[in-house]
Write a structure and sequence with these properties.
The chain is built from 1 helix and 5 strands. A 5-stranded antiparallel β-sheet has the order 3-2-1-4-5, with helices on one face. The chain has one helix at 60-74, and strands spanning 5-13, 21-26, 29-34, 46-50, 53-58. By secondary structure, the chain is of the alpha+beta class.
Length: 79
């Protein structure tokens, strides 16, 4: 099973679409991820990240729902 985690894109570096990177915050923990699959992503957007690659841009509400579901699963609760 694969898991993508939402995070908030804080900054973007690079102009070449294949090599753009961004700093994404996951609950205060920052990581640099590839933005090659999400050329439309801009600072302030929420992105789904899998294996260090942003694979989709999602709205804030969707990111919140996903994080709530993941938190409940980690706590052993049913959603």
């Amino acid at each position: 099973m694969c898991l993508a985690i939402p995070g908030k894109l804080e900054s973007v570096e690079g102009d070449d679409p294949l090599f753009r990177q961004g700093r994404v915050s996951f609950g205060g923990v920052g990581r640099v991820v590839s933005l090659a699959c999400t050329p439309e992503a801009a600072p302030g957007d929420y992105v789904l990240v899998h294996a260090g690659i942003a694979i989709a841009v999602v709205d804030e509400a969707e990111a919140g729902r996903t994080l709530a579901t993941l938190g409940a699963a980690l706590a052993g609760e049913e959603t």
